[in-house]
Amino acid sequence: MNRTGVILGMLLLAQLFLTVLVYRQDNPGAGSTGNQALVSRGAYVIDELRVEDGSGSSVLLRRTGEQWQLPRLSGLPANPEKVEKVLKSLTDEDPGWTVAHTLAARQRFQVADYHFRRKVTLASLEQTIGTVYLGTSPGFRKVHARNESNDGIYSLDLNLYDLPIEAGKWVEPRLLQVRAPMEINADGYSLQRRDGEWRLGTGDAPEQRELQALLDALRNLQVLGVASQEQQLAAEREEAELILDITGLAGTRELEFFKLGDEHYAASSEYSHLFRISAYDFDQLTGIDSLLLSGAQ
Predict the structure, then answer these.
(1) Which domain holds residue 222?
(2) Residue 256: what are its φ and ψ, rounded to 5°?
(3) Calpha distance 246→181 (Å, rounded)
(4) Residues 54, 161: one domain?
């Protein structure tokens, strides 16, 4: 290659470099990616998660051993999958390219320290590891996010619905499920499991489809949230639609089911709170026909 060709090649490379540089300066959406998570946890084990909204409301989750708990709800266990999804999005996954990095964009995307939809603080041993602001949604199951200590704004695979401010929405939904009952007593029927078979209190075999409906309803019971103090007081003044005394390998518990207006609730002797459940779960349990279960119909 002659000298003229070398010079022209160098000029072409310089022109390409300047073009890319100018394009990146004029287009905030063409930002860089650090190929790392939004929050670097390092060697720390995250044991506290705090979520706040712009109005000052907040919810705190704290890790005790292998379980996440809700201190403001008497230490009720939190949904581990829900917590893990948030931690994974913030501390494990590469958020990709920045979509903006200017002060004006912080305001527009609502990720400024004075204007945000969610503020998520992660801590370990009472030391803050990182704080992230979440704002507007650029698309389905996406949210704009910014680490407090950086200018870059990202489009994160997360949804504000995944970070509720109401503590009850973090509660483990399987909290009231009964996986392996050995004895079930209700006002209209009594069931015992002996030598691998279910028997009625009379010693007769129960109707199998009705029995299976009852066992499935107990096994799949879902907690939707925690009732307010007013709702709990109202339930205490009402007579339960159904009371189940259930004995399992872990001991005995009592489940009570209430209907207040159009809402449905369940109480357990294991916990001091009243829980919201679906109308479907309520109907599945209260709809068990004791006569059909006994084979009388």
Answers:
(1) 181-294
(2) -120, 140
(3) 7
(4) yes
